[in-house]
Amino acid sequence: MISVKNNPIETRLVEVREELKDLKSFPDSKFVGIIKELGFRCELCARCCTKEFNDHVFLLDSDLERIKQIDPDAVTPAPYYEFCDQKGRFYVSGYALKTKPDGSCVFLENKRCRIYERRPSICRVYPHMLHREADETGKVDWRQISGLNEHGSYNSEIDDSTCEAIAQETRAYEEAYLVQMIGFLEAVGVHFRKNDLKHVQRTYDRKMRDFLKGECELEVYVYCKGGFEMQKLRYGSDR
Predict the structure, then answer these.
(1) pTM recorded for the entire structure
(2) Is the dihedral of CA 198, 203, 209, 215 positive or negative?
(3) Does residue 238 belong to any structural domain of this protein?
(4) Are 95 and 222 a contacting pair, CB within 8 Å?
(5) 184: pLDDT confidence band, cut at 50, 70 and 90?
(6) Are 113 and 44 in contact (CB under 8 A)?
């Protein structure tokens, strides 16, 4: 049996399970207080809808089904694949929205979202995400907010009921994301054990170098609804 210490999948699984446990114990009152103190207000600049500011829009399974109904060609395997087996096949925890050549979201037009009422979960809660990070003393705790001082205005007055609604929706998203990640890690673990596979960082690095040079295509297994969908990508096709 491979020990957790020497198995990156099991190591990450332990970490994510602990993260979910910690998230569930994070006090609602503390989160609501952070939201109220910051007082974020959107200024409709659309910066958050570009790669320059947010890299990519990760889709939960519930988002994926809705987006595929709107435009099945709008999705692509999420970047930053988590694992690569010794045969050069990559594994990633879900899909993301495609972007246009200028880096803006495929659904952004004239700085407005074409699917605003049906937008993905992460777009609905942004920028009120929770992140584990260290403070100035080195203590690691849940902190929030994303994209500070990059867009929007702050110190606006937000009533308590709105802050509570934001906190509840954000917590629901964060929990769903971690549950999906746990499902992905468990599925990869089963697949690797069943097929005598393992993550090989050297193979990962070599394949990515070749891919970014346009010298090969990638075979990517995307976690979706409890299983994997295989996608083949050429460099630039994820836009």
Answers:
(1) 0.89
(2) negative
(3) no
(4) yes
(5) very high
(6) no
Least confident span in 3-12, 82-91, 132-141, 157-166? 132-141
Residue identified by tokens 């976690």 is: 223
What are the angstrom distances between the C-alpha of 181 and each of 13, 20, 56, 106? 8, 10, 17, 25
Token pair, residue 23, equals 């998230």
- How many distinct structural domains can be found in the chain? 1
- Asked whether residue 239 is domain-assigned, the answer is no
Which ranges in 26-154 belong to alpha helices (H)?
Answer: 28-38, 51-54, 61-70, 121-125
Calculated CA dihedral for residues 145, 76, 187, 183, nearest 10 degrees: 30
Among 82, 84, 81, 79, smallest CA distance to 202 is for 84
| Residue 151 clears pLDDT 90, i.e. is over it | no
- Residue 181, in any domain of the structure: yes
Distance CA 239, CA 75 (A): 9
CA-based radius of gyration for the chain: 19
Res. 22 pLDDT band, cuts 50 70 90? confident
Q: What percent of the chain has pLDDT over 90?
A: 69
| 149 pLDDT tier (thresholds 50, 70, 90) | low
Residue 32 lies in a domain: yes
Tokens coding 235: 């460099």
